[in-house]
Structure formats: structure tokens, C-alpha cells
Amino acid sequence: MAKAISKNLNWRGRSIRLQVFLSHAGVASRRSAEEIIASGRVSVNGVTITAQGTKVEEGDTVLLDGKPVLPETNKHYIALNKPPGYICSSGDPQGRPLALSLLPPAKERLYNVGRLDFLSCGLIFFTNDGAFAARLGHPSCGLEKEYVVEAAGPIPDSAIDAFCAGITIDGVSYKAKTAERTGRKSIRIILIEGKNREIRRVFSHFHLHPDVLRRVRIGNVLLGDLPEGGSRPLTKKELSELQ
Hints:
This protein is α+β, with helices and mostly antiparallel strands. The chain folds into three domains: 16-68, Roll (Structural Genomics Hypothetical 15.5 Kd Protein In mrcA-pckA Intergenic Region, Chain A); 77-139 and 221-242, Alpha-Beta Plaits (2-Layer Sandwich), CATH 3.30.70.580; 144-218, 2-Layer Sandwich (Alpha-Beta Plaits). The protein has helices at residues 18-24, 30-38, 130-137, 157-165, 198-205, 236-242, and strands spanning 16-17, 42-44, 47-49, 55-56, 62-64, 67-68, 77-82, 111-113, 121-127, 145-151, 167-169, 172-174, 178-183, 186-191, 210-218, 221-222, 231-233.
């Protein structure tokens, strides 16, 4: 039987958590890997695993859906300009188009770092490096994400001031690092934590609707003139600064 755990990993005589191994193998981010484990799709040495915290060692055989999982040796870091109308997921039961389908074909399995909702557009990263994805996705990273938003109607100063000061909606706190007016109906926003649909929830609270919500920067990486639907590898300088 094929060995799922390769000597490419620097084990140093220790074991690692199964979800960490899956993320290093490019299966999914650590959070998504936990969901995959809980669904009963993973086995270790012939035993189906559903409990979190299970550890694996060099020489163990890990299978996903009955197929060996091998650590990735080639790491990919891709920037995509996602158009509206694409979903950031590895699959969609509703059959909506996947942002992943816009990337050039790759042997390795890639997944998105963070998300942009179905109607939003702009910069998003794809990778097969689980450690990279986990680091960028953790709030302690302090990674800035910059957005430009064009609303259907005028944006009141009260909404901008509240977003900058911090506002609680349905028990969830939202706070922009900065929110700067660029026009009567447009605004530029910088977020740090970037909670799920944060900008849309704040806008909805003030009875506003974003006609355009575009992410133009993640950390040091700019969307720039990357065409909609286009992608490119992150540069060594960009990766170095992100890491």
C-alpha cells in the first residue's frame, strides 16, 4: 500500500495532527480539513477517523475517500481577480461557477485563502500550502484587506463614522480600520479581521446596498491591472513580505 506520509516533511521523530498533515498535503485549509475529517472521509492505517486531534506519524497511511494522500512538494501561490458571480469553494450543490475554475490547470489541488462572496469581486489568493493559508487567515496576522465600494444610493456620514468607531449588529461586532469617502456613493475601506460578509452586513444595517464591492489589496499585494478573471503567481518579494 502506498505510504501517505513522505519523508519530504521534517518529522524529527514527532507526530502531527491529522488536519495539519492534510493542509500540508494541499487537501484543504486546516479549518476545512477538520470538516472533512468530521465527515468520515479520512482513514489512517485502515481506521476511519472522525475525531479532531488525531495524530499521525511518518510511515502511517492516510487515505481520503479511499485514495492515498501525499504531501505536496510543489507549492503554488496564485492571485486571482475574481469576477462577481463566482463562488469561492471547491464545489457548489447549486451548480454556481467556481472561482477555482478560472485558474490555469494544475496537478496540485488548490484552494482559496479566505473568501469573497458570490457577488463580490477582486483580489483573492489560491494555494496548496496549508501553513501559508492558516497564517494569513488568523486574526493575529493583522493582515490588511482594502476594498472599494460603490453603493446604490448616497452613503451617510453616520454610517462611515459608526463603521470606524465600531458597531454591533445582531450580537456581532464590526469595525473598520479606516473608512474614507471617495464620492457621494463610494467609499474605500480597510479591514483587519474581515468577518464574514462584514461590509455587506454593515451596509444593510444602514439600509444601503453595494452595487460594487471589490477587494483591491491584501497586505502588500495589489490588484493593480490584473484583468477580471485573470490570475498570476505571487512574486518572491510579495511572498517574502506576506510571510
